[in-house]
Amino acid sequence: MNDKALNTLEFHKILQMLSDKAISVPGKEMAAELCPTSELRDIARALQETSEAESMILKKGSLPLGGIRDIRASLKKVALGGVLSIEELLHIGDFLYVCKKINSYGRRENKNEVFELLDPLFESVGTAHDLELELNRCIANDKELKDDASQNLASIRRSIKKANDGVRDHLTSIIHSQAYKNMLQDNVITMRGGRYCVPVKQEYRSQFNGMIHDQSSTGATLFMEPTSVVTLNNKIKELLVEEKAEIELILRRLSAMVAEHEPVLSVNAKTLTLLDFIFSKGELSLEMRGTKPIFNDKGYISVRKARHPLIGNDNVVPIDIYLGREFTMLLITGPNTGGKTVSLKTVGLLTLMGQAGLHIPAFDKSELAVFDEVFADIGDEQSIEQSLSTFSSHMTNIVRILDNVTTNSLVLLDELGAGTDPTEGAALAIALLQYLHDLKIRTVVTTHYSELKVFALSTDRVENACCEFDVETLKPTYRLLIGIPGKSNAFAISSKLGLPDHIINTAKTVISREDARFEDVITDLEIAKKSIETEKDRAEQYRRDAELLKQEYEKQKNKLAEQREKLLIEAKTEAKAVLEKARSEAGDIIREMQRISLEKNNFKEAEQKRLLLKEKSDALDEDMHLIKLAKRELRPAPKNLKKGDNVFINSMEQPGVALTAPNSNGDLTVQSGIMKIKVNISDLSEDLSAKNVKKAKPTPVAVTFNNSSKSMFISPEIDLRGLLADEAVARTDKFIDDAILASLNQVRIIHGKGTGALRSAIHAFLKERGIKSFRLGKFGEGEDGVTVVELK
Of 86, 323, 454, 534, which has the fewest Cβ atoms less than 10 A away? Predict the structure, then answer.
């Protein structure tokens, strides 16, 4: 992109905002050097990076780069064999600590969530644990090494401390000695030139045995080193030299370690710089409430509720602007300070931001085109130094644009033809626009000329637009209305401001009848546009109301489904009760018949009991038939049945899976247990229980009863979560009966943790059921959410 357009559209201010979001020095530099590109693949990748960074920020917070150091110079230094200072080594340690934080930040908590572009960057951040540990062990702060950085250093520093203590003890005895009491200015020990001294009065210089190292500004006090401590001070000096040499050795050793890890550190430095830059784009998008634009290479622009990013949210007015499909040129007219130039800059700046991989402050799914160049001639660029008028300045820019423009360029022209004679300026402007229009160049122009409004109305694929102005309040609304040329409001504004009517009427007689008629047409169009906008708002309200009704419908639909499932559960519970009652009564009758059969000559009474048993059996069959019909009505017929769908076979009261789709007669094959059955779709219902299954059930156990020819499939576990206590107990009772018949030794009852009410009800039932034993699950078995039952 040309620098002229970047400066005119203030793209550098966007880069400054981006740079402020970066944390590291290299990251800020990278942000400041960002430029738009015209490669669609590069744009798509950069925008995806921004989107992924924004998503990670929302999920995990900002990238943890706090404390990061710029180590580029240090890495170059060690690569040339140089020795790093303590501060430089400390910065290397800080950098490695940040790398460790970045590793932790980039670790995915959800394995199904993939960040296609960012994940490889986080994975490429290497570690150097041995170097980091050694630096932490040796460095105390940016000025000093720790004593245990080496054994020799620790020994030297102990010797220095011992020598210092010896000197101070000796000097302390001197300053408190009566023999030196009158000679000393103060009873203090001081340092001069790295040697311990005491303050001696000037008049006692010859009597005090020692060396002079300094004197006070008045000359009244001499700082003298007693001869008795010279040897000790010399020893300290020697030890300090040894300490410095040992520190040099340690720094050289640590620098060599850094050099060994230089490849990893260099890659990490580049990766963290790139991550800092990418996440600064994500932070900027969140700040300006940006969205990812959709790019095309066909020259289509369609941005909805676009906001100029350099205008505060409290003042900016969103605009809808489109260009490239129905028309390739847009002429914006309207009063000064009405927002024409802002609209022009918004289109250009959002295009530059999008092509630089930045999100734009507009509604989601806004569309931008990829341009190889954006040209802009905006503002008054009159130059006194170059003796250029406003018109000359504009013409100079336009000539440069025409010399470099291509069919894939975006041209933005502000107040085209202004600054010269209106007639000549309008004619020249029309000629320029016609030239750009013939080349099918996407162009947005602002103007005051009525002739250009006529040009837009009379030329194919050229559209008028205006920035709305409220004549009543004499204030612009800053809304952009595409399809209507801006109306001149000079007479109305002048009247509102108090200009006498006779002057306004005289002015009206001056303009031609055609001009007046044209203004009336514009007024009619404006009224029609406002009417359309009102209808559009009303339609949008209807759409929102319809959406609310749809949501209410879905809510009621789900509620009915829950009620239907509840009724089905009640029907099953009732069937269970009927069966239990029938079993009990049948058992009583059978026992009574056995008693009677043992007695002689009681055939009549036995026959009566047999008839009673038959009546009970017939009543039971009728009750079960009614319950089956009720359950069948509760189950809806399957819709759009296809292979693999779960179904319920009404005649067999068994669930199954469709192995084929229904043929033209409605016949299909269904797998139920180990059996494959050919049934008609009329005998099938939806398997409501299958809809609630969220995880694979354990492999069932096939059991064949001796007194029956069909097999029964028993699962070694039952899931009771979500059931009421009474229903859960009933299901558990039936489940244990089936498990005993299947000769299972152990079963699992899944009741969940929750409040513990369901678990308590199950345990209370098991105590009375007469099973062998039961216990809560162990680690890996479900713990408190599962009860393991041992059967007799």
Answer: 534
